Amino acid sequence: MHIVILGAAESGVGAALLAQAKGHDVFVSDQSPIQPVYKEKLAAAGIRFEEGTHTLAEILTATEVIKSPGIPEKAPVIQALREKGIPVISEIEFAGRYTRAKSICITGTNGKTTTTLLTYHLLKEAGYKVGLAGNVGFSFAEQVLADEFNYYVIELSSFQLDDTYLFQPWVAVLLNITPDHLDRYNYSLEQYAQAKLRITRNLDSDCWFIYNADDEVIQREFPAVFCEANQLTFSLHHRPDYHLAAYYTAETRVCTNLKPGLDEGGEEISVAASSLIGQHNRQNTMAAVLCARVAGLSDEQIEQGLGTFRNADHRLQLVAEIDGVRYINDSKATNVEASWYALDGIHQRIIWIAGGTDKGNDYTSLVPLAHRRVEALICLGADNEKLKAAFGSAVDHLEETRSMADAVRRAAGLARPGDVVLLSPCCASFDLFQNYEDRGRQFVQAVANLVQSTKT
């Protein structure tokens, strides 16, 4: 086949290398400049590529197109391919054709990365030959080319799922569905939910579907989906309306049962050794524990793995404790729901740093939490008026700044021993920072400077 790859970053270059190895004629096109590391890979493999443009005359000769998940359906190049009837698929779909390894695939609006990394860690620590792929930044296709793993743990965004057709996970996980990226789905939550539920479309009786029984959108949308898989639901509480596969019996104990239709057979696992913070991470932990149970890990292996796991940066990351005050970096919280989880999960008095580029946020759900938990709000953004209007009467103290160093300095001045200084912006970062990682790194550096100043 003549395979055209649209997008020459991690997933696109990995797909190009796999396609060439399988004997296909390959051409790579990226409308933006290609990063040197990826350009070198393509050149070393002798794969033709272009950057800074899409040459339609070449692209429309494709037998099949593999596109980057970042390219929207409305892009002219995709519309031209649709008009000509040329199949457009994702790297995940393509790579899935060439591996017999079992895939554990995780999606949801919030918590995907944490759950994916934790599941991968549990399997790897137990000695499994397992790869990490998908939205976490590692090409599934390039790993399939090496064919070294028996299992893959794959984080899947809705954009990646949109272009899958025959790909079949062994275990599919749906954590939650809340409004996000609706501009890609005609501003329809239902369409976005169906994109997430696409993860179930090829599951059969040998597969497993793990999902959150506490999520209202999943409860509403899932019954319309035909699913033959073994279904495992989890909840923060024991619920009579569900045959639950996992739920908490105490703050740090989870009861799991892979045959939830039966009363007997449940096993309790301690999660006391986990360093994860917040209610949403208690849900993420249950999902990962169920994946590990399906994969055959013992309770002892799971408990040991939970104790050695460290989450990715910028996700409720404990940065330091200074004079009895904990500083937590949750810069990845770029939407209201993510910040709700952070505020709900921290039970100490909070000095909250929030703000940035508003994405049409509705802060209503955060106001009661802020009233109960937040002592002071430091607004960090180019335009803080909406935050000030939403929380001005909910918190005792509110001020604003446009500097992370200043925000951390002011927070430290307001905090008392036992408090938490929390960066959980619930907004995008592009007004004052390059991205959420840059915002988080500046927070970490500001805290490090604070540590240094206390020593002098």
From TrEMBL:
Keywords: ATP-binding, Cell cycle, Cell division, Cell shape, Cell wall biogenesis/degradation, Cytoplasm, Ligase, Nucleotide-binding, Peptidoglycan synthesis. It is an enzyme of class 6 (ligase). Residues 106-292 form the Mur ligase central domain. It comes from Hymenobacter fastidiosus. HAMAP family: MurD (MF_00639). This is UDP-N-acetylmuramoylalanine--D-glutamate ligase. It catalyses: UDP-N-acetyl-alpha-D-muramoyl-L-alanine + D-glutamate + ATP = UDP-N-acetyl-alpha-D-muramoyl-L-alanyl-D-glutamate + ADP + phosphate + H(+). Cell wall formation. Catalyzes the addition of glutamate to the nucleotide precursor UDP-N-acetylmuramoyl-L-alanine (UMA). Its main location: cytoplasm. Pfam families: Mur_ligase_C, Mur_ligase_M, MurD-like_N. NCBIfam families: murD.
